[in-house]
Amino acid sequence: MAPGRERTGKLSPARRRRGGHEPGVRLLQGECVEVMAGLPEASVDAVVTDPPYGIDWQGESWDGRAIREAAARAGGGRLTSNEAFQVWCRCWGEGCLRMMRPGAHLLAFGSPRTWHRLTAGLEDAGFEIRDSLMWLYGSGMPKTRRYPGDRASALKPAFEPIVLARRPPEGTLSANVELHGTGLLGTGACRVEGRHPANVAIGHAEGCDEERCAAGCPVAEADLAAGDQLPPSRFLHCPKAGRAERDAGCEELPERHLDLFPNARRRPDGASAARNPHPSVKPIGLMRWLVRLACPPGGLLLDPFMGSGSTGSAARLEDRRFCGIEMDPAYLEVARARVTHHAGATGRRGRGPLGARR
User: Fold this and answer.
1) Which of 109, 138, 164, 282 has the fewest C-beta atoms under 10 angstroms from its C-beta?
2) Who contacts 21 (Cβ-Cβ below 8 Å, separation ≥6)?
3) If pLDDT is split at 50, 70 and 90, which confidence band does 344 have?
4) Three-state secondary-structure class, residue 27
5) Euclidean distance between CA atoms 114 and 105, whole angstroms
């Protein structure tokens, strides 16, 4: 541990998670800005999170009205939806910034439609914007109906942006690293096939394995198009989360309704039952790579929008301590089950999340 680093930081009994005593894990229920206000400052080594995108997903309050109301309470006045989203991102960004050590990194997923407001909100909160990563995949569904003449109002989604930000270091970067242990990225632990990690990730299709890609895999098609050039697949290997990964550890939980494609009722993968009904489960392989990139070994990782616990699962698999905050008690229950399940496999290696053997 670097000199000057205090890693304890107590929580009041009222703030402690309900049930369970998994070492190195704290799962807290509540609105993240309020919960973070009661947690120790300068105690977190990194933040990796997937917040709401402010796009009114399926009319859900947490992705629309609640954000606008929170921005109004913050003194935002009469704002457009996108302006309110930026104010809201500034608010939770300020909470994260207070909890983070100088030089600590933050990675936050966004939507192509509102990513610019997420970035601006984090900058308004006091962060340095260091980069933007892009996770590409081929399994998205168009969020539009068909119009006459084979026209539509939107394109098929095929990437998610990830903002990379940093709390400004104290003094020089070298001095900050020596004092706080934060300020640099773990690029050595994130190399893919020995190469320096890039800011682009390409998601393989379900059915791909160590030896070959499934038919129609976007990575295989990109490699084929590259010809004699370096193949794009050298950047990563990380498909979207399948049902087995989503539900791992949740075997004792009841099944709940899950409909990822409400406008495609005749599709076989439309409405169904799942023990983990969260609509936006990130693949643990990708999250493990991001955890290694942002959080120093043994550090404390914060996720203020924990959802069903993919970040926490990745943190425990990568031997990081974890603090997660989730407002919905049902998702908190799922997150607890998944994080506990993966905590039992802490330190497990094998195939690297993005293609390299580790």
Assistant:
1) 138
2) none
3) confident
4) strand
5) 21
Give the C-alpha separation, 304 to 94, whole Å: 12
pLDDT of 90: 98
User: Which residues, in sequence order, are bridge partners of residue 159?
Assistant: 136
Q: How far apart are CA 247 and CA 138, in angstroms?
A: 22
Report DSSP letters for 249-282, one per residue: T-TTSPPEEE-S-TT-TTSTTSSEEESS--S-PP
What six digits make up the tokens of 278? 């969260």
Smallest Cα–Cα separation from 136: which of 229, 233, 231, 213? 233
How far is CA 278 from each of CA 15, 222, 258, 332, rounded to the nearest angstrom?
A: 24, 30, 8, 11
Q: Are strands 300-303 and 321-326 parallel, antiparallel or unpaired?
A: parallel
Edge-to-edge strand order for the sheet containing 300-303? 25-29, 321-326, 300-303, 44-49, 100-109, 159-166, 128-136, 200-202
pTM: 0.84
278 vs 319 pLDDT, higher one: 319
Query: What backbone phi and psi angles, to 5 degrees, belong to 147?
Result: -115, 160
Strand pairing report for 100-109 and 25-29: unpaired
Domains of the chain: 16-142+154-343 (3.40.50.150)
E strand or H helix at 26: strand 25-29
